[in-house]
Design brief:
Length: 297
């Protein structure tokens, strides 16, 4: 099968499309014929070796966590799914023609494979950090870097829970944030004053890692009311860095329910082939995403 792999840490040029042996599901796992794989910032952070001190991996390694596809292998002990089912979920080395998933759910009927591949890690992360930051219905949440996949999910989930959301993004994405129910403002010079004029901030999330932790602490008045998923230096300011996933199966079930109720939709901004994985990482690293980027297999 075809698979994207890297044998050394570095830039996107270390990615190679290779011929590899097909993986097989272990206990409690399923294998899918991949139709699409989600592109997440964590993918290129792992490729760069950023997490080696906390979560080391052995090289050569595959790339990708999220995928959608058709079940073609089910191991003993797995219930509720069978070969031929359309699923989306999280596993390992998903930039490939076949991948093993350790967490999955049935795809909502109206979703395409491309759309479904963009949800798993994004929704798990959104649900986790909304819970960790402790924001409650009736309060106001500031989301820095709100137009990407996680931001898109956070805005919609928070609004569904009765939380007012202020989102920062580039000028081109202001209408997009408003379409998701957020009060939108731009980042750049003077952004903290613009946020203050919009009201009191009860909690804040840093999704872009753009060096705004100090400002977010200032806006909330308490480092315990700020969570970052992108700035490894956040703990220097007393801010929690959230990088360990919670229950992905539970997140997938909640994601499917939100999608079915019409309360969650994350658009696919751009698709790539397996051979274009390096380009996908370059674009993801550049930011300014509106929704998700997906590799189509």
């Amino acid at each position: 099968m075809k698979k994207v792999s890297f044998s050394e840490f570095g830039g996107p040029d270390v990615l190679r499309l290779i011929d590899a042996e097909e993986p097989h599901a272990g206990p409690g796992q399923i294998r899918i014929a991949v139709r699409a794989a989600g592109v997440n910032p964590v993918d290129w952070r792992i490729r760069e070796g950023q997490f080696q001190k906390v979560h080391p991996i052995e090289l050569p390694a595959g790339v990708g966590l999220d995928a959608s596809g058709v079940v073609d292998e089910v191991r003993a002990g797995v219930e509720g799914v069978r070969a031929g089912d359309r699923v989306f979920g999280e596993g390992a080395s998903t930039y490939a023609e076949f991948a093993v998933l350790s967490a999955w759910a049935r795809m909502p009927e109206h979703l395409t494979f491309e759309e479904a591949a963009g949800y798993p890690s994004v929704v798990e992360t959104a649900l986790r950090i909304i819970h960790q930051v402790g924001v409650r219905p009736g309060q106001t949440l500031l989301v820095s870097g709100a137009s990407g996949g996680v931001g898109s999910a956070v805005l919609q989930i928070a609004r569904d829970r009765g939380i007012t959301v202020i989102g920062t993004a580039g000028a081109a994405n202001q209408d997009y944030l408003r379409s998701l129910g957020a009060i939108a403002t731009t980042y750049g010079e003077g952004w903290t004053e613009r946020v203050r004029q919009l009201g009191h901030i009860d909690a804040a999330l840093d999704l872009a890692g753009s060096g705004v932790i100090r400002e977010l602490v200032g806006l909330t008045g308490d480092p315990q009311k700020v969570i970052s998923i992108a700035d490894l230096g956040a703990p220097e300011f007393g801010v929690r860095f959230s990088g360990v996933a919670g229950s992905v199966p539970d997140a997938l079930i909640e994601a499917a329910a939100l999608i079915e109720r019409g309360k969650l939709h994350i658009p696919v901004e751009k698709t790539y082939t397996l051979a274009e994985a390096a380009a996908a990482h370059i674009d993801s690293h550049a930011g300014h995403t509106r929704g998700r980027r997906v590799i189509v297999v």
